[in-house]
Amino acid sequence: MVVGRINNALIAEDILQKGSADVTVMGRALLADPELPNKAKAGRFDDIAPCTACSLGCIGEQTKMRPMTCVVNPMLGREKETELTPAATRKRVLVVGGGPGGLEAARLAAARGHDVTLCEKSAKLGDSSTSRSSLRRSKKSRYGSNTSRGKRRRPASISSSIPR
Ligand code: SF4
């Protein structure tokens, strides 16, 4: 059995295939995306929200004796109160800004059935958490996040400039 920073289903599978362990254990990866096993089983790797191994919301909050959170899963620990329901009326929704907050707002609105357009002035989405992830990855781990963030959170359309 092996445990520790296994935050990618393909890496877990690689460990098993190489015979390095009989069982792999995931912790934080499942906080970031509790549906990871089901998505991986279905081959939907691009839909998995990757744990960035930042330890900010999970371990960091616990060390302060506060409820656990997650920088990529704002519903962690609040699943019941944040349960998604279909919108009573489908609306056109414009989200301005493709940072983590904007991406999540767009994803949730799209998941509720709204017609969502996300506008971001730069060519890159999810800047701050992506940068943090890259920093952590380059310093500490080869088990970095994959490129799934954009796909998982992609709304109906994305514009690189604000429409006039
Ligand atoms: S807070 Fe960071 S390390 Fe903890 S589960 Fe979320 S993404 Fe992973």
How would you explain this protein's 3D organization?
The longest helix has 14 residues, at 127-140. The chain has helices spanning 9-17, 28-32, 36-41, 59-63, 100-111, 127-140, 148-152, and strands at 2-3, 24-25, 92-96, 115-119, 157-159. 25% of the residues are buried. The model is unreliable at 130-153 and 160-164 (pLDDT under 50). The strands form two sheets. The protein has a three-stranded parallel beta sheet with strand order 3-4-5, with helices on one face. A two-stranded parallel ribbon has the order 1-2. α1 links the parallel β1 (2-3) and β2 (24-25). The chain has one domain. The chain is built from seven helices and five strands; from the N terminus they run βαβαααβαβααβ. The N and C termini lie far apart (56 Å). By secondary structure, the protein is of the alpha/beta class. The site of iron/sulfur cluster has 14 residues, from α2.
Notable characteristics:
single chain; 7 helices; 5 strands; 10% strand; disordered C terminus; binds iron/sulfur cluster
What is the topological layout?
Blueprint: E1 2-3, H1 9-17, E2 24-25, H2 28-32, H3 36-41, H4 59-63, E3 92-96, H5 100-111, E4 115-119, H6 127-140, H7 148-152, E5 157-159
The protein binds iron/sulfur cluster.
Report how far the terminal alpha carbons are from each other. Answer: 56 Å
Query: Which blocks of ≥5 consecutive residues have pLDDT under 50?
Result: 130-153, 160-164
The bound ligands are: iron/sulfur cluster
Which H/E pattern describes the elements? EHEHHHEHEHHE
**How does the overall form come out from the CA principal axes?**
globular
Largest sheet entry: 3 strands, parallel
Number of contiguous helices? 7
Total domain count:
1
Helix percent band:
25-40%
Give the DSSP E fraction (strand runs of 2 or more residues): 5-15%
CA radius of gyration is 17 Å
